[in-house]
Amino acid sequence: MELPIFYDEAEEWRHAILLYEAALKEVNTKIEILNSEFKQAHRYNPIEHVKSRMKSPESIAKKIRHCNRELTIENVVRYVNDVAGIRIICSFTSDIYRIADAIKKQNDVEVLKVKDYITQPKENGYMSYHMIVTVPIFLSNEVVRTKVEIQIRTIAMDFWASLEHKIYYKFEGNAPQSIRNELKECAMIASYLDNKMLGLNEEIKRYLPEEMDDLQEIVVDPIRRVPIEAYGTLTEE
């Protein structure tokens, strides 16, 4: 990843990228451990999947200009909070807060900012839970706290956000009002679906004996993506 305008500061920029990439690895590892703990302790996997990315140089430059700041490495580090980003996709809205609380409780994680777009959605209907955190990166001669943006959302929220982004991109951010109205209505439908599925999940729990809770996980073949019991025991090739 290169930022052409930083030719004279190439070494400093490479150092910054090293820190951001290391921070992504740190947070990814934390999330993997939390997910494994949930599966072991509760026989329940609250995380569907995790995505991570580094912001493109073009997006960084655009964000700095939007903040009316000079495009320097110092300003990028100070004012751009999402150079390194991780998105956690959950099954239910209750899982979002469960995971967020678990992350906040980690001793080496410092939470700088939280934006709850679930209790207070954006005007366009966007819903997600955002956290800006820092984690310590231990280098050979120093420890540098480095920022990572964590977004936590349900499958329905992620589906809506992904398609909304693609549609707005086609209109270069200036979609007709009728399109924006339709997208907002779709966001409301996605939210309704989330609430219905959460309610259904809570109702199912009432029907299951407590002693059976740890036996509810279905083992899934990672290749065929169907329950193993549906076609018998896997054989080694």
Q: Can you walk through the features of this model?
A:
By secondary structure, the chain is α+β, with helices and mostly antiparallel strands. It has a single domain (4-210), classed as Beta Polymerase, domain 2 (2-Layer Sandwich). The protein is 46% helix and 19% strand. The chain contains six helices and five strands; from the N terminus they run αβααβαβββαα. The chain has helices spanning 10-42, 57-66, 73-79, 93-104, 155-170, 177-207; strands at residues 47-54, 84-90, 110-116, 129-138, 143-154. It has a five-stranded mixed beta sheet. α5 (155-170) runs antiparallel to α6 (177-207). The longest helix has 33 residues, at 10-42. It is flat. It starts with 9 loop residues before the first helix and ends in a 30-residue tail after the last helix. Mean pLDDT is 84; it is low at 2-7 and 211-237.
SSE topology:
Layout: H1 10-42, E1 47-54, H2 57-66, H3 73-79, E2 84-90, H4 93-104, E3 110-116, E4 129-138, E5 143-154, H5 155-170, H6 177-207
Parallel strand pairs: 2-5
Antiparallel strand pairs: 1-2, 3-4, 4-5
Helix pairs in contact: 5-6
Q: What is the structure about, briefly put?
A:
The chain is of the alpha+beta class and 237 residues long. It has helices at 10-42, 57-66, 73-79, 93-104, 155-170, 177-207, and strands at residues 47-54, 84-90, 110-116, 129-138, 143-154.
